[in-house]
């Protein structure tokens, strides 16, 4: 009995000493306190996670197992114990119009099970920025309310990030402005780099407060990752954090895929093409600019009727698949002025300015930076990402660029395969 009491005393002393002395990480609250319960959207036990892993495996994404002793939160579990919690986080962020008002913003924080072992662990935070979505129910804070473990055959990226939490990471998946808690408060500022970065930084601060208040220790260097629009936001976010140290964050790894970097180049490739695959990407951006920071955008000079008049309603957050709502043929969707005269018509020059202003500009990165992109991508275009990587390296940055097989959709698989392997080295 005395030996057991002594061992317990030593454990408690070590926990107290470790919490107070290690200034590399933020302080923790009592491990028994759990105010998170109010914000918990759902929990996942070991059988749920095994189903998720099998679904991803069926999609071609095999997650490498981490060593058992690197995931101490799985020790001593029971079958129905929740191993991962999905918690809603929220805060205020500036309205994307820049009008001085604020909107609500929200997201999901995926955390491992709280145990005595997790109180001794320090977790790497992954900021996982989502790809393009147009339906409000696809925003992470809504998707995790009713997440299904019955696969429809598609790759469910929410499974991927939930399994990373099971493996010992903390994962923040932000809702984008115009979705989640801000649904109806603004139109989504699609491909507006400043608005998307600003809201993500605000939400990251809220997430870190939740972690600290509930006994989770975390490393100060972030992993940031995203595909498609998520890659755009991830790259712009990492750039802002590395070039503006006042935010107080450091980036350990930036891993993007299918990334729209040079928006002007993408628009020019579209204009020079006969057809496009993802028809709604550019209209989505046009309305996001028009209804937020750039009200002077003349939609009628860019899109033909009836799309100039009616397409805004398609982006009301109730529709999830808009690709067939627009014609694939470029000349059927866009005006001749936009296609032929964008670079020579003075009345259209503002659009080029907007596209350049919101592109991700190369910078001399300190973090490890890996980009993947499908060689057959004719939606976000391989040339745009390769050009960015070349320019970044030319100015002294360091980007490892991995061409992969597949178009914008199929290149999902190698992106997540490579990412899951790389994450092991950034625990």
Task: Provide tags for this entry.
single chain; 427 residues; alpha/beta; Rossmann fold; 434 Repressor (Amino-terminal Domain); 2 domains; nine-stranded mixed sheet; two-stranded parallel sheet; 15 helices; 38% helix
Summarize the structure.
With 427 residues, the chain is α/β, with parallel strands linked by helices. 38% of the residues lie in helices and 16% in strands.
Using DSSP, what is the number of strands? 11
- The residue ranges in which pLDDT falls below 50 over 5 or more consecutive positions are 1-35, 66-77
Q: Write the CATH homologous superfamily of the largest domain.
A: Alpha/Beta hydrolase fold, catalytic domain
The CATH architecture assignment of the largest domain turns out to be 3-Layer(aba) Sandwich
Overall outline: globular
> What's the structural domain tally?
2
Q: What order do the helices and strands follow?
A: HEHEEHEEHHEHEEHEHHHHHHEHEH
Which fold name fills CATH's third level, the topology of the largest domain? Rossmann fold
CATH class of the largest domain equals Alpha Beta
- Beta strand %: 15-25%
Q: How does the helix and strand content classify structurally?
A: alpha/beta
Give the strand order, joined by hyphens, for the main sheet.
1-2-3-6-5-8-9-10-11
Q: Work out the helix count.
A: 15
């Amino acid at each position: 009995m005395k030996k057991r009491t002594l061992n317990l005393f030593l454990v408690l002393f070590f926990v107290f000493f470790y919490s107070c002395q290690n200034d590399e990480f933020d302080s923790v609250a009592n491990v028994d306190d759990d105010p998170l319960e109010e914000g918990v959207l759902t929990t996942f036990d070991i059988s749920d996670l095994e189903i998720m892993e099998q679904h991803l495996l069926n999609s071609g994404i095999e997650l490498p197992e981490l060593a058992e002793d690197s995931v101490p939160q799985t020790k001593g579990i029971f079958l129905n114990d929740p191993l991962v919690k999905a918690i809603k986080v929220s805060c205020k962020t500036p309205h994307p119009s820049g009008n001085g008002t604020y909107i609500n913003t929200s997201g999901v924080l995926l955390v491992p099970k709280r145990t005595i072992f997790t109180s001794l662990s320090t977790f790497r935070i992954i900021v996982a920025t989502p790809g393009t979505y147009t339906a409000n129910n696809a925003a992470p804070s809504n998707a995790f309310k009713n997440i299904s473990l019955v696969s429809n055959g598609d790759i469910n990226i929410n499974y991927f990030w939930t399994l990373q939490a099971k493996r010992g990471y903390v994962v923040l998946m932000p809702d984008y402005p115009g979705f989640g808690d801000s649904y109806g408060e603004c139109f989504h500022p699609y491909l507006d780099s400043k608005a998307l970065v600003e809201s993500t930084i605000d939400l990251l601060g809220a997430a870190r407060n939740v972690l600290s208040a509930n006994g989770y220790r975390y490393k100060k260097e972030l992993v940031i990752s995203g595909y498609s629009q998520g890659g755009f936001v991830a790259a712009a976010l990492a750039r802002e954090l590395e070039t503006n140290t006042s935010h107080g964050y450091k980036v350990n790894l930036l891993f993007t895929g299918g990334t729209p970097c040079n928006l002007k180049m993408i628009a020019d490739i579209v204009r020079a093409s006969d057809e496009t695959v993802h028809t709604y990407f550019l209209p989505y951006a046009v309305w996001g600019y028009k209804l937020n920071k750039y009200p002077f955008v003349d939609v009628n000079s860019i899109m033909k009727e009836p799309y100039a008049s009616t397409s805004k309603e398609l982006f009301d957050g109730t529709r999830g698949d808009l690709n067939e709502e627009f014609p694939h043929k470029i000349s059927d969707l866009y005006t001749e002025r936009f296609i032929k005269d964008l670079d020579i018509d003075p009345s259209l020059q503002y659009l080029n300015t907007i596209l350049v202003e919101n592109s991700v500009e190369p910078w001399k990165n300190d973090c490890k930076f890996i980009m993947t992109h499908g060689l057959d991508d004719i939606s976000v275009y391989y040339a745009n990402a390769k050009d960015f990587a070349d320019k970044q390296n030319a100015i002294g940055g360091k980007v490892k660029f991995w061409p992969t097989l597949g178009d914008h959709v199929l290149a999902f698989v190698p992106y997540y395969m490579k990412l899951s392997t790389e994450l092991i080295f950034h625990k």
